[in-house]
Amino acid sequence: MTSDLLLKITRFRLKGERIIIRPFRKDDIDKRLKWKPYPDPLYAHYNLGEITETQRKEWYLKRKKDPRMLYLAIDDLKEELLGFLNIYDLDWGNKKAKLGIYLGYESTDKGYGTEAIRTLLPYFFEKMKFKELYLDVVALNKRAIKCYLKCGFEFVRTKFKRHDPRNKIDIFGDERFKDIRKYFKKEGDEILVQFEEMRITEEMWEKKQVDSK
Length: 213
Ligand SMILES: CC(C)(COP(=O)(O)OP(=O)(O)OC[C@H]1O[C@@H](n2cnc3c(N)ncnc32)[C@H](O)[C@@H]1OP(=O)(O)O)[C@@H](O)C(=O)NCCC(=O)NCCS
Hints:
Elements: H1 2-8, E1 14-15, E2 19-23, H2 28-33, H3 53-65, E3 70-76, E4 81-91, E5 96-103, H4 112-127, E6 132-138, H5 142-151, E7 154-162, E8 184-187, E9 190-201, H6 202-211
Parallel strand pairs: 5-6
Antiparallel strand pairs: 1-2, 2-3, 3-4, 4-5, 6-9, 7-9, 8-9
Helix pairs in contact: 4-5
This protein binds coenzyme A.
């Protein structure tokens, strides 16, 4: 089943009104490297910076070879790369998976994220015949949460996970972060950040289609 799907996916295209979802390619990393970086230090882990040829190959192979992952690119209609979607932890037995998404900084806040997820969901539920899609979002990422709620996701539970060490920010020392400290806690040497787990089930998605008619 998995390999069938991966084979099919090489010709795979999902079209929205302003976007196209397609399998990612090796040269997508070059396009990604040209994106303007996120200025907000909380999003620094989305900025790639300089990478070596070996890292470039690793970036591609890690995503292409993982049988539990479908890594997809989001283009606009002029084939400009807007971002990536990632269905991972594909659990074929229980028909569950997780979703990741990120756009280039300059493509955010234009409705592309919502459109990409709404375009992906019919494929996930109807073609792949999966039943549940989960995601984890940092609780302070209000834009992402709003986008997921618009797509029909609901909150499942709150959890704490290790803060991404690539975001070298002094949450507890730097006064710029005083308003968001409530989302962080220290545990020994580690800094943990609050995440919200969200999900959409096939039933929730079907009901949303009916309600919006
Ligand atoms: C998260 C992400 C995929 C959302 O896609 P997007 O195209 O930017 O989002 P959309 O424009 O479709 O929707 C965002 C909504 O949040 C709202 N919003 C934006 N900033 C907000 C904020 N600070 N607080 C509350 N709502 C906010 C927007 O107004 C919009 O709602 P509206 O359509 O009702 O006006 C994209 O912003 C992104 O890639 N961000 C960086 C990486 C990231 O955070 N990934 C998610 C990790 S879980």
